[in-house]
Design goal:
about 400 residues, alpha/beta, 15 helices, about 10% strand, globular, 8 strands
Length: about 400
């Protein structure tokens, strides 16, 4: 009964509405309000990104592979250094054997090696101060002094150090040790900026702040050498920590340095077997942690790749294989401290390039992985034109 009443009521209401509308004047539909068409806001163009995209579009796979190399040639003649850049390398690492008598001569050496004004090479040096110091005219204090001082002293020291490097023609400092250890017998004990993670992190961030806008900062040796007894120049040191123990300790200085704006992180040839049995420089998992957990979006550079071959382990005896594994795992820039004749170290630059290119062709290194690495490295190089005077 209730249903019939509702239907009847609805029918009566419908008839009433129809009859009422039949004699009424039609109601005009509202006209859309006229408004001037909005001019779309143009998307700002990032000049660095646009340049890098254009340059990469012109590069072969072999040229891209070559751009992942940072190389060393001994001596104060710019010709051997320049030859590496002419082969397509993106960077040079200078050691003590490259340092002449004064900053002016070093600046002239670096200038004589450069080959591309639109895309200057990254020119790096290990200038920590203290035990690791290449430039005799760097008067700023090192870690042994700074860890006993307030963090502001570290900012001042690395600001002065960065100015010294820039005046000498250098644009990258491999100088900020983010390792932490309280063990006085550790081979890296004299170089850490703090003996506990919080103190180290404060001074690592302070060092990055001091270098900002003058040279590019590098944090080393990720994921932390202080927890791994031994010297990675002759072995693959092993740290006994779990991932949670790492997050609560050695990760802190790296996170603080990344948050402060460090442009590069250097991976170490050291292992945390509870996380990955591979050395971090060849570990996809450590590269994932660095990117996804610590939020690092800059250039990942390896420690000297020759160190892997010097440890006597057969699985690292092939330098070409080491290069492929490093790039495949997530490295952007491969560092080689070469002798005057690379063959003396079992290295051929053409061989490295060919191995990486062949791995891309076979799919072992995805094209996207190669392009991501090249884009990061070329972006940093182009930033030298856009941002760093």
């Amino acid at each position: 009964m209730r249903t019939r009443l509702l239907l009847g009521t609805a029918a009566v209401l419908a008839i009433s509405l129809l009859s009422g509308c039949s004699g009424a004047a039609p109601v005009a539909a509202p006209k859309p309000s006229a408004s001037p068409s909005a001019t779309p806001t143009p998307t700002p163009v990032d000049p660095v990104a646009a340049f890098v995209e254009s340059r990469m579009a012109q590069m072969s796979v072999e040229q891209k592979a070559a751009s992942l190399l940072m190389l060393h040639a001994p001596g104060v003649d710019p010709a051997p250094l320049r030859a590496y850049l002419e082969q397509g390398a993106s960077g040079l690492i200078l050691m003590g054997d490259n340092v002449p008598a004064n900053p002016e001569e070093l600046r002239a050496l670096v200038g004589g090696a450069q080959v591309d004004a639109e895309l200057p090479a990254l020119v790096a040096i290990d200038e920590e101060g203290g035990d690791v110091q290449r430039l005799p005219w760097d008067a700023a204090p090192g870690a042994e002094t700074l860890r006993a001082e307030p963090p502001a002293a570290t900012t001042d020291a690395f600001s002065a150090r960065a100015a010294t490097l820039a005046a000498s023609g250098l644009n990258v400092n491999f100088g900020i040790v983010a390792d932490v250890t309280a063990d006085p017998d550790s081979f890296i004990a004299s170089r850490v900026l703090g003996t506990d993670p919080i103190a180290a992190g404060e001074r690592v961030a302070a060092a990055v702040t001091g270098e900002q806008g003058t040279v590019f900062s590098t944090l080393k040796h990720f994921p932390g050498h202080g927890a791994a007894p031994g010297d990675s120049h002759s072995s693959v040191p092993s740290a006994p920590l779990t991932i949670d123990e790492w997050r609560a300790g050695p990760a802190i200085p790296f996170q603080d340095g990344i948050d402060a704006g460090a442009e590069l992180v250097m991976t170490g040839h050291l292992a945390y077997p509870a996380v990955d049995a591979l050395p971090a420089s060849l570990s996809p998992e450590w590269h994932r942690i660095l990117r996804d957990e610590l939020g690092f979006d800059g250039v990942v550079v390896t420690d000297d790749m020759l160190m892997l071959g010097d440890n006597g382990l057969p699985e690292y005896a092939d330098p070409n294989e080491n290069a492929v594994r490093a790039v495949a795992s997530g490295a952007d820039l491969l560092l080689y401290v070469l002798p005057a004749d690379p063959a003396d170290a079992g290295i051929s630059v053409d061989g490295l390039v060919g191995a990486i290119a062949a791995a891309v062709s076979s799919g072992r290194i995805p094209q996207a992985r190669l392009d991501d690495a090249v884009e990061r490295v070329l972006t940093l190089r182009r930033d030298l034109v856009e941002k760093v005077s």
